[in-house]
């Protein structure tokens, strides 16, 4: 069985790099890689807000973030207080919360679509810990309010800059340096490509992070800003792609926004807000020659792909997932699973039919909105800069998946 490359680029739609002239990047979780300490920081700040401001029980302050608990693409059932992993048909594939919901497995979990919400990794652990506390303490609670309060607390710690200041106060703890990133960006410039940065973050946060990430590899006189032709912060993605907001020029020294209309992007200037329509009018860049790298399905991938840009999804967890998938022990378990499926299929002809959809909703969206996906942008250095990237012939929702057949045991 082939081993997959954890740092490979996986292709959903054929992409010719020789036809790409413009490389755009999101910042958070795309150019900036974080250690697991960041989720811990967000969890603790949100937990403190819930206790101090929303008057959740003091005992919640003792909760600790569990990095092994959350995974991407979980649904929260606001009625029952369960976290669920649904496949792309809305079927329950795995229940991950501690509460037991009887007789759900294998059924199409329609109610979840109506009453459930997709939660992000940082919400999942805090929601689960609070629900568990209320259940264990036999206290009455409304599961939808827990979701709303956790969400409000997390919004608060981001909007007020608590998370940003926390990261910049100790960048060694939160940001992961990577010399290859500068290599990649410089290589693109040397090849004559245009580069832009388009982020929802405020400029001071990006500037602090980029300076820290590249300080060992950039000369002390050089600024990371010189790597980019255009830098846009506080872009308000995904509205950026559909709104008609004008750009404003930002003065980082004075922390002020100019009133003048922006009709050209000047080197070394920083722009705030704006929209795709003005961006295209000013740059004259054509959709299919632009590739945008981002980590967020709806902020970074859906809008650009609908606008005709090519898209590269950055999925940080991909490396670990592929390393596990490459292990012999994992493959044996997969083969056993397929044997069970085959046996069940023989027992009950309909079971096999119902078991077909195993891909998650997240996988489905990545397939829809990302032309290619990889764990970090620098992985492009492993391929020739003019490479033609081809989708695999055997059609799969996620091309990095290896289908382990039950015949593994027959060899
Ligand atoms: N208001 C909220 N802001 C959030 C949340 N989660 C992340 N963030 C912040 O958004 C930007 C994303 O930057 P980008 O470079 O990926 O475009 C970053 O500053 C985060 O701190 C949230 O739930 N609410
Ligand atoms: Mg991001």
UniProtKB/TrEMBL annotation:
Keyword match Metal-binding: yes
Q: Which residues bind GMP?
A: 28
**Active-site positions on this chain:** 26, 28
- What cofactor does this protein call for? Mg(2+)
Short name of any one Pfam family annotated for the protein: 5_nucleotid
Similarity section: Belongs to the 5'(3')-deoxyribonucleotidase family.
- Give the cofactor note: Binds 1 Mg(2+) ion per subunit.
| UniProt keyword Endoplasmic reticulum, yes or no | no
Q: Which residues bind Mg(2+)?
A: 26, 295
Protein name per Swiss-Prot or TrEMBL: Uncharacterized protein
What organism does this protein naturally occur in? Rubus argutus
Could you tell me the keywords of this UniProt record?
Hydrolase, Magnesium, Metal-binding
Q: Which GO terms describe its molecular function?
A: 5'-nucleotidase activity; metal ion binding
Write down the SUPFAM superfamilies for this protein, in alphabetical order.
Answer: HAD-like
